[in-house]
Amino acid sequence: MSERVELFEVGPRDGLQNEATPISAQDKIALVDLLSTAGFRRIEVASFVSPKWVPQMATSADVLAGITRSEGISYAALTPNMRGLEGAITARADEVAIFGSASEGFSKANINASIEESLERFHPIAKTAIERGIPVRGYISCVINCPYDGPTDPTAVAKVARELHQMGCYELSLGDTTGHAYPEEITKMLCAVKDVVPDAVLAGHYHDTSGRALANVEASLQEGVRVFDTSIGGLGGCPYAPGALGNVATEAVAVRLLELGYETGLNRDVLAQAARFATSLRGEAKV
């Protein structure tokens, strides 16, 4: 049997959050329900951040309340603080995520805190969630370079990864936030991180600004990474990383993995349908 690689679908949250045109809760629910038939084990659907900063996510509780939950799928939400965690718990998120950065400049721009301050904020969130039986995932942004600070030292990524792992994060998503990484940079970063945390807890989160995301996925596979965050239709971007395009497209990664001999368990016909629908939500020509 082929070795399995899991794609963690983040389109309904990370893919749509940066869209300027409001997208209705009903359309978001329809997208999640469609994705739920594709074979995913995990789908990120909500973000309990302040609507002031991310207006598109203001309907997160409505989305979690309205989706048709499928057995065996974990529906995830981003939670930047204790208030966000309580909102996610009330909305019955199956798991939550905390998000930090490996660069000081991005940390301050994204969450208005230094790296050290952000880690202090995360401790009570992780502790409370775990005590309530809710799995916690950790995001690390700017693992290769930062739009404010330039290149990121791999040892800085490893330090944040160790802290989040020690807090109890079951998985660490390593983000090439600007999307300009080269495969050799990904390899160097992963080697540093693997020195301090187990290979099995790592996931790749690669934006495709420079068209190298698929090559970076392949480099990560060589280092033992078997989980990748992807966004249906390649939707996404980051409001605090100007010019960064979306995550690598789910359907593109699924095809490449099959070509490389890996199994994803995903239905390509459903992915194509979901990509057309997701792209239509932002008013672009359908793919």
SSE layout and pairing:
Blueprint: E1 6-9, H1 11-15, H2 25-35, E2 42-47, H3 60-66, E3 74-78, H4 82-90, E4 95-101, H5 104-111, H6 115-131, E5 136-141, E6 145-146, E7 150-151, H7 154-167, E8 171-176, H8 183-194, E9 202-206, H9 213-222, E10 227-230, H10 250-259, H11 268-281
Parallel strand pairs: 1-10, 2-3, 3-4, 4-5, 5-8, 8-9, 9-10
Antiparallel strand pairs: 6-7
Could you explain how this protein is built, in words?
The chain is globular. The chain has a single domain, classed as TIM Barrel (Alpha-Beta Barrel). 41% of the residues lie in helices and 16% in strands. The protein has an 8-stranded parallel sheet. A two-stranded antiparallel sheet has the order 6-7. The model has no long low-confidence stretch (mean pLDDT 93). The protein is an alpha/beta fold and 287 residues long.
In short:
This protein is an alpha/beta fold and 287 residues long. It has helices at 11-15, 25-35, 60-66, 82-90, 104-111, 115-131, 154-167, 183-194, 213-222, 250-259, 268-281; strands spanning 6-9, 42-47, 74-78, 95-101, 136-141, 145-146, 150-151, 171-176, 202-206, 227-230. It has 11 helices and 10 strands.
Sheet-strand content, in percent, reads 15-25%
Major sheet, described briefly?
Answer: 8 strands, parallel
Q: Architecture in CATH?
A: Alpha-Beta Barrel
Give the CATH superfamily: Aldolase class I
Query: Number of helical runs?
Result: 11
- How do the strands of the widest beta sheet line up side by side? 1-10-9-8-5-4-3-2
List the uncertain runs.
none
Helix content: 40-55%
CATH level 3 topology: TIM Barrel
Radius of gyration of CA atoms, rounded to a whole number: 17 Å
Overall pLDDT score:
93
Task: Tell me the number of structural domains.
Answer: 1
Q: What is the quaternary state of this protein?
A: single chain
Global shape: globular
> In the CATH hierarchy, what is the class?
Alpha Beta
Q: Tell me the number of strands.
A: 10
Distance linking N and C termini: 32 Å
Instruction: Specify the structural class.
Output: alpha/beta
